[in-house]
Write a structure and sequence with these properties.
- The protein is α+β, with helices and mostly antiparallel strands.
- It has helices spanning 5-19, 30-41, 115-120; strands at 23-27, 45-51, 58-63, 77-79, 88-89, 103-108, 111-114, 125-131.
- The radius of gyration is 15 Å and the shape is globular.
């Protein structure tokens, strides 16, 4: 059993990218589903599929690679707020990832969204991870 499911999610994606896999399978939860939708909407993953065959269900994510260089679109994916040290940001101090080229996934009272959406909606929350 793992104590930090978000870190496990990010590590599985990171390991699949470094191994050159096309698809990664991750145990499902509502938060992980929302994070996957954000990664898809922002163009970091090719596609995804939610399967509810088992008790918990799984998420199958097709990773996106550049056609010429065969490198992953995701250069870095790192956990920011950890169970031992939570990181929160208000609407005014929302982090900018790679000077606006990357995204931060933020858990707010209005759901999971990117740092840009949270700034537009003028709400803060827990900064889960940075992706670029």
């Amino acid at each position: 059993m793992y104590t930090d499911p978000i870190a496990d999610y990010l590590t599985r994606v990171r390991n699949a990218i470094s191994a050159g896999h096309r698809v990664v399978e991750i145990p499902s939860s509502n938060l992980k589903k929302e994070m996957t939708k954000i990664l898809f909407d922002q163009g970091y993953v090719l596609s995804y599929k939610f399967e509810d065959s088992s008790v918990q269900g799984t998420i199958k994510i097709a990773l996106k690679y550049d056609r010429q260089t065969k490198e992953s679109v995701i250069k870095s994916i790192e956990r920011i707020s950890k169970p031992g040290l939570r990181k929160y940001a208000g609407a005014s101090e929302m982090p900018r990832v790679l000077n606006g080229l990357g995204i931060a996934i933020v858990s707010t009272s209005h759901g999971v969204m990117t740092n840009k959406q949270a700034t537009q909606n003028n709400i803060g929350g827990e900064v889960l991870c940075h992706v670029y």
